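Human: I'm a chemist; would you kindly supply sequence and structure tokens for a protein?

Assistant:
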Amino acid sequence: MRPPAWSGALAPGLLLAALGCRPAAPPVPPPPPPAPPLSFPGRNLVFVSFDALQAAHVGALGYPRAVTPNLDAFVAPGFAFTRAHSVASWTVPASMTWFTGVYPSEHGMTNKFAVYNARERTPARLRDAAPGLVTLADLLRREGYATGGFTGNAGVGGGFGYDQGFDTYYSPAGTFGGFDGSVPRALAWAEAHRGQKFFLFLHGYDCHGQYGPTDRRFVAPDYDGRYAGSAPEQELLREEGLERGRLALRPADLDFWRAAYDGKIARADERFGHFVRAFAALGLADDAVFVVTSDHGTEVGEHGRLDHGFTLYDEQVRVPLFVRVPGAAGGRTVADRVGSIDVLPTVLDLLGVAPPADVRARLRGRSLVPALRGEPVGRDVFSETDYRAYTFKRSVVTPDGWKLIHTLETRTRELYDLTADPGETRDRAAADPDRAAALERKLFAHFAGIGHDLAARRWEVGLNPVYPSQAKDGAGK
């Protein structure tokens, strides 16, 4: 029997009722996945620094060569910040910001010497540069954490104040030690403290140009051997690049240095893999929040030179930043632009530690924990370098990828669109002067806001050595 002619005017539910049928219940949507917990009070903290690891050379961040399989596998269930920028392009200023939560201009560890001239040579130390600052280790020790740091010395040596707040701090004799020295000691310390909550800082210079020997696993078999990849060679090329502005290297030589760099990264990755497996064998892996990052990247010919510290291009300041938390549904990437200035408040948030009011008021970053829930966290990101008093640079990157670099001693600026030009090869400052001027105002306002008026002093190039070769009497060691 055909339905009445008027049935077409009825709503579907009324039509079914008129025909004696019960309308089907609307489908119940599945519940949303649970948000990760906001904090993990009482958990251990493991903070790992791959010194001088450029973000673009990490497989989890898109690098095609398989140099970081252990790191990639470890962070896969965690959270990867794909556009993280360091506050500085070399170790001393960059690493101290992790532990103090303020910019290098504020903590004062901008070079290895507080004073360096013919009459006085005073090494820099945090307690002298910023006596009121407390560190992450200070804060966690007050919360009952055992604190242990195991490093490669050099730019994170205890003499600069990196040992502040640590019960145990390992800085090997000499400089540029790797994970081969710090990992065994860190594991022994973790085992000895397995009955209490702890903060473990693990650092190695394995990826650094001054760490040896060279690992040749990725070097082309037919390379003619003009370079062997030694630390003295790398040092000479670094200084030549600084002096001339650009190195005269053949394409085959650049390929060699990039392959040698990847070999170092691969060796560091293997040692990290050993650490992770041994740490898990101690039964500690499920009770620890992990932060894995780098203090800065390094240049391997992207702008014509080798090493780091002397520019603020992305190969030097874009860094890996991974967070892995027990029990949280990770496997998520965060593409917002964030900064290493955000690491300390993030760690405190993850551990459920409320800093004292005076410390909280001083922190310049903000917690990235909302990103673990998928919330936006991007903002302007600022970096700086006063490397060796050779140059003084400041930069800002906006959330939409515009980057301004201002060189203070020459009063010049560069402007890049990182979205269209991620390699920073096309300076847009002359073509887009209004944007450059607006970003310059923002940059100067930021530093004025933290008590550092960039226009209030003269920026004169001088000497503040990092390596012994820059000071013949050895004072740069």
